Every structure is written in structure tokens, then in C-alpha cells.
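User: Please predict structures.

Assistant: First:
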Amino acid sequence: MNVYLETYGCQMNVSDSEVALSILRAAGYERCKEIADADVILINTCSVRDNAELRVLGRLDVFMQEKKKRKQKSKKSKAPDGSEKRGPVIGVLGCMGQRLKEKLLENPAVDFVAGPDTYRNLPDVIKAIIDNGEKISATNLSPEETYADINPMRTDTNGVSTFISITRGCNNMCSYCIVPYTRGRERSRDPQSIVHEAEELFKQGYKEVTLLGQNVDSYQWTNPDDPTDTTCFYQLLELVALVDPNLRVRFQTNHPKDIRKGVLYTMAMYSNICNHIHLPVQSGSNAMLQKMNRKYTREEYLQKIADIREVLPDCAITTDIIAGFCGETEEDHKQTLSLLKEVGFDGAFMFQYSQRPNTLAARKFKDDISAAEKTKRLNEIIELQSSFSLMSNKKDVGETYEVLVEGFSKRSDKQMTGRTQQNKMCVFDVPQTLANGKKETAVNIKPGDYVDVKINSCTSATLIGEIIQKPNRQYITAVVYDNILDIRNSIRELREKFEKEFLENRESKKKENKK
């Protein structure tokens, strides 16, 4: 049987889709690219904003038309036993399925809904629907499910960069966010399975992995057979970096209340851990941060920025901003703009506040900022951030960066694209030479190669450059290697010192709170 799957929302949803496809493939299903060829149509959904859900409802209308079309055909061409051939089985996966549950089953297009923790049951659910014709809701959240033993069916197109899920769920309970209600409590995947997955991906030719979690900084695995055997995020980061120096390692997303200096020092220890941190601030106003239940202040956030720039001067920092949260005053908005100016982010994801049902904010606060005012404030944020993104890229003009090639540019087959360690998109000309009166590629460059690119110009979103030929890198001598080890050991000592201080401060705060 053929299965067709569409994915909407965050990168975690893409990762989940790969898990679901892997489970279905093991049960004998084959993935197809067209709805018309599918026996099963799945849509993996997002509930973070209202627009995401509206888009899914629009797609369900399209799927319903396909179901009707099949029904008309089945009347003319019946199955060998004389019965009418049924249309495709249609299922809604992910956060929207988890949030709406049975309400979605009222849609005539939908045969079943399945939450993020029930994908192991997909083959049985589909079989039951085919056998019995009854609609099914499979939305139990699990405190343990991590899909650690599932080898995801990769759906990326370039075969160069992919994602590894390290946690599921979230414990932060930000007042605006639906994720804890649709993905459940946070749980960490065992480090051995994560490292093994990274090793296998590198063997398959991947050159970059991104460790993925709603809050990677709170990753904490405890061996169920030995409670003293634990792994925190910076230790996991080091284990993955050690897979191979030619494997780039990224991670997202960080949380300002949890990111530790141990992570920064680990990044400094390994050149293949990319110099980019995505640190969502959401607002520059302490009043709004408190309402959002972010558990840090503006001042504490700025200290985290200072820590990053002290340890990693070349690290790119990006963020998320919400415009028009409940009760946001003009002064609150101005404080967000001033924080943007003070930090000078390299990039940002910026959105209007979209109230989500049953969240803390929906229960406690009035969504009292008009749509027009939200749009105005968002546009001011975008305009200001665009100027800083352009300024950041202009600083790179004249510099040379190592770029991981991802493929050819969509606009020209004479240009290729890739990303710097700072996660900046780079477009560069492929060197050409004349042969028999025709231009041909002078060097054999392919996706997955590392090239040195000199930046000649830029836009606010893209660096534009040319490949330069650097002298071949020399082998590291024994003396240089010993020096590297000495530096790495001294950084490790610093990291462990700050980690000890962090844990002691946390325990001290717990004792004070109990008093």
C-alpha cells in the first residue's frame, strides 16, 4: 500500500514525520509523492498559531475532494468481491490531532487522529479502519516514548544536513505556548542511541546534524539501571562532536533560563560544533516576560548574551520575538525594540501573538491588542531587525569562511549554496573555465563538500561570494596536538568549575524557596 504524507510546522514535526514513515515502511507501506497514488493520506500538523491550523483545514478539503472522486470511480469499477472500493484512509497526525482529538473526527474527510506519542500504532490503526470502517482517535500522551529505537526515514533532499531528536515534550509551561499540552512532559533520549544515529548518518554521507529539542539545555538522561550514571546536554554535545571532526554539529532550541557556560566551553573545545546559538527572548519587557512565564528577566537574558560573547566572540546569535502579547503597552514594545538595539541579533523569527485555546494565557489574560496594532508593532520589529541582519552580514564582507555546500542555487546552475558555521546562507559562483569554446565547471564541487568562500557582497538574508583556493591544510604535528590537548583540558576544567557552581546555586535557591 502507498502512503502520502504532508508536514506542517516546526522541525520537530519533520522529524516526527520521518519516524512515522519509518514505522509504516517496516509494516510494508511505500511512500508516494502524489495524492492520487495514495491508499493512505497523512498530514502532520502544527498548533502553535491559528494560521497553521487553518491551512491544515484547507488541505483536508482537498483530501475530501480526492475521497469523493475515488468514491465516484468505485461505483463504476467495483472490487472483485462486488463491494465498492473504499477511498483513501485519511489521518491527521501531530499537535493539531492531539489538541482537537474527536472534534477533528467530525470532519468528513478524517478517518483517524494520532497524537505525537502514538505513531507506533499507525499500522494497526489503519488496518482497523480498513477492516471495520470506524473512525479512531489515538491520542494518549506517554511519559516515556522517545522513539529511540526507530531509524527515521530521511526526507531531506540534499543528503547533507539532517536532524536528530534528543528530547520530546516540554516542561517550561510558557503561558502563550500550546506545546506542553500537545507533546506532553519532557523526556530525554538515551545518549548511546543518539551517538549511534550520528555515526550512521555520517557513514551515509551526511556532513551536518542538528540536535533537536524544545529545550536542548534541559536534556538530562539518567541510566534506569544506575542513577549515578547521568548525561547532561554539554556532555551529549561533546559525545556527538567526537563522532568525526568532519561532522558539523548544531543544536536548537536553547532556553535563556537553562543555557549554561558548560555548553559554551564545550563549543569552544570543538571546532566542528557550529558557532551559532538560537536564544529566544520573546520580549524585552520584564512585565511581559513575567506574564509569559519565561522565568528570566531582561537583565538575566543580557547577561547570557555577554557570557556567549565572552567565551565565543564569533558566535552568531539569533532569537524569537512575539509582538502584541496580552496587555503589552507601547512602553513594553519600546523595551523590545531597545533590547534588539542593545544585542544586535544576527537574525530573528518574528511573529504576532496568536492566542491558543486552553493555554495559561488564554485562561488568565485578555487578548486585548488589536490586529492592526499587532501588525504595526511587528512591522517595526521586522524593520529594525532587518537593519541589524544587514549590518551583521556587511561585517562579513571581505572575510573568508568555510562553507558546507548544500546544492545548486534555485536561480542559476552557475551558482551553489551552503551555510557558514554561523548558519548564514551563502551563495557563491562555481569556478568556470573555457573548454572548446564553452564554459565548464573548473573544479569538481558537490553537495557535502567544504569550500572556502570569500564574501564580496551581501543582502540582509544572504552572503554572496566566490570560492578561493587556500593552501592545503598541513597535518598537525605532535607538538601542536599536545598544545591543543592542553588547551582543551584547561577549557574542560573551566567548564566543570562553572557546572559545579551552577548546580550549587540551583540547590541553594531550592532551599531558599522551601523556607
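Second:
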Amino acid sequence: MSDQTVPAASESEFGTFNADGTYTPRQIIDTDLKGVDIEEAYTSTMVLVEDGQLVEGTVVRVDHDEVLLDIGYKSEGVIPARELSIRNDVDPSEVVSMGEKIEALVITKEDKEGRLVLSKKRAQYERAWGRIEDVKEAEGVVKGLVIEVVKGGLIMDIGLRGFLPASLVELRRVRDLQPYVGKELDAKIIELDKNRNNVVLSRRAWLEETQRDQREEFLDNLKPGERRTGVVSSVVNFGAFVDLGGMDGLIHVSELSWKHVDHPSSVVSVGDEIEVEVLEVDLDRERISLSLKATQQDPWQEFAGSHRVGELVYGRVTKLVPFGSFVQVGDGIEGLVHISEMSAHHIDLPEQVVTPGEELWVKIIDLDLQRRRISLSIKQAAEGGQVAAEYQEHFGEHAYDTEGNFIGGESDSEGQQAWEEYYATAEDDATAVVGESGTDDDGTEYEYVEVEEEVDVETVEEPAAEAVEEPAAEAVEETAAEVVEEAAVETAVEAAVETDGEAVEAESDIEET
């Protein structure tokens, strides 16, 4: 028998078996629950959470679509990727890392899959709103990173999504906003609505505040009537903004040109260097009104200086209205031809006389420079008159008499030639050729005589064939008597003359008559 001893059961590293073979495990530690139920003790160690509560935990897992956060609850909380950041479509690994302690807000204690759902960005909202409200109340400045370009402006990360309108990014409107992404900007809070989760920022307000002294000095030195050179910074529907070197002034669409302007972009473009005249300086509102047309020659002044009432000018019909038509007689100059001055006879509509695009001569019958109105007349232009000097130079001095009246040039225009051909053809069709004679198929001679005086002519039936047998001289005398009595115009006297010598007697009788 060996001297080696077996350790007592209490000292054994293992449990013991009794006589029946039942195993009793070794007691590791003594119970310290002190009479408390173990389930109750386990529950007391867990964190109690409610919906909307802010909790803190440790990141224990990062996946491509979610993050697991240990907050001491019976199971880890799940943060979906869309609830990690106020930025859209971000990689969770770019926002959090393993072992990082972060704050989250409880969205729901248990979803349909039994998971605790949390949100990191909503926790940021809750913390940020309190800070943002304090900054707004103190009229302070917030700093944030530009994370996105949206319609109408930029999104800044200031702990929550702040909207910076494009018109408030700089002192003047910026067209390309993409270069601002990734930059950190300072801005002032101009609107705050927690219920709508709406924060509106203004960087321009911050710039104006920091550059106020410079702006005040610039405005004090700017006087109405001055002419300055600037660069067009933006073009909008109602006008164009011009950078005068630190401040922008507005050229209203009505001050862009003496002509009618459909859109400012038809006159100026962004980047154009132009000379403008200062119309008004509003020190209180810090606004500058400019004019581009004030630096240009007034076409009305120019027209009034080179034309006078009674002159004939050439123009183009631009528009018809119920009371007349508008005729362009110069660059940017339109006059009205009242319907009563369109024709010598009564008309109901202007369309009866002219059509848009038609070019014609008109006479200036009134020129009101103050009201910028010109009254014209087509009817009086047809009566003739002195032609304006520029048209005399165009057609040549030889085409006018000493008083300036048009008498024609060396060569006619195509239109004038066409009218002359028309009148010539009409005259040939309407009148007989003097001295023309001929012979009918039966051998009877005839002759046409044109009478100068114009009167109404009665229709006379031709004599029957038997009447030719009457003496020729008697027939000629009767016809001549009717011509003298009624003074007929262009009445053809036809005499049937026999060849036995009576033709000479008939001709003698006609001459005596």
C-alpha cells in the first residue's frame, strides 16, 4: 500500500459520486444572491428602454446595410444604414467603427422580427435642435460641411440637414453649385421650424455682416448719374445683375434697351463687361438701380431731331389692331396709323388696306416726343409731299424736285414697273384704238372714232339686215345727230357705205356734223 493519500472530496477539482453512483458537481462559488430569484437578478441587470429614448452603446458589428450596437439590453440594437447619417447612400463603415461609443435614439423596442431598432441620425437631430435653437436666438453663426446639391440650393451638415438656397450662397447668385460640395461654410440661420424639420440658412447674410463697413463705404461713394463699368453676374427674368466691384446692382428689363425686350438674355449674357449708369442708390435697403439704355442714344430723340411733321417716311406694318395699324418707321420706332387715316374711303377693318409685313410710304401728321408717340397717315401720303432726307439720299437727289417732292428716278422699281404694266393692259382693254378700221366678212367697211367727253351711254339695238338698203347718207346723219345730242363717250359710229360713190358723200356729211 502506497503512502500516497487521496485528497478529501472538498479539496478535489472534480465532483464526487455517492454510493448509488449519483454525481455531485464541485461547488465553484458560493451563492451571493442572498435569497433573490436568479431570473429577477438577471432582469435587474438589463437596461430599461422606451420608444424615443436616447441611449448610449458600443458598436459590436458593422455590416454593409446595418450596425449592431450593445446598449446593455437583452439583445443588441440594430441601426439600419439609412438611420446612420443625414447623408444619403453612405457606407456604414465610413460613419462608425468597431468599438466606438455612440449615441442613438430608440425607434421601436421590438419590431416584427423582435429586434430593438435604433437611429443614430435622429439622436443627432435631438442634440442638434437644442444647439441650433440657441444659436438662432443669439443670432450666431453655424459652421457645416456641404454634403449635397439639390434643386434650388445646397444641403449643409450642421448636425441636421440645413438648406442653403442658391440665391443666398454668395452676395450674388451662383449658377454652378457643384464646386461647393465638400467645403465647410459659415452661415446664419434665417428660418427654423422643428415641427417641419426645416432649417434655412444664409451665407450671404454672414458675408454682408462681415463686409458691412466696406459696403457702406462703397454706397456712400456711389452717386446717381455716375457711369460705372461692371460685369454681368446673373441674368433673371426681370433683368440682369451687374457686379460693380464688391456690390451688385440691378438693371431692370425696362432699362436694358430702348427697344422692346422679350427676355434679358437677348441683350446681355453672364460675363459681359458693360457700362451702366446709376439711377438710384437705396442706402437703407442697400440696393442699386442701374440702366444700360441710359448710356445709349435715345432713338426717339434721334428720330425727332431728323424728322418733322408733314414728311414722308418709308415703313413696315408690324401689327394690326381694331383701331388701325402700327408701322415701324425707324430702329425701335413705331407709329400709329389710325383707321381714319388709312384710306380716302370708309373702311371697317385695317385688313382691308394693309397686311402685317407690308412696306409702304406714310406721312408724319403728329410727333409727340414727350409721350413717345407718332401719328401717321397712309391716306395723306398718297397725296404726296416732301420725302425725309435719308430717303432722298437713298434714291438720289435727281429723283426729287427743289422742294423735296418725289418726281422719280432713272430706273423704276419692280413694283412700279408691275403697276405700269397693269395700268397699260387695263387701258388697252377698256378703250378702242383711234383710227383703227376694218372690213366685215360681207365686204362692209367700218371705222372706230374715240370721243373725248365721258357721259352715260344708252344701249342701241343694231339695225336689222334689211335696214342696210336705206340711203347711207341718211343713216349717217341720224347717227351723228344722236352723238351730238347725248355727247356720248367712245360711241362707235358704224356706217354701211356702198362702193358706188355714196361713201364719199357719207364721209362729208359726218365731217359737217
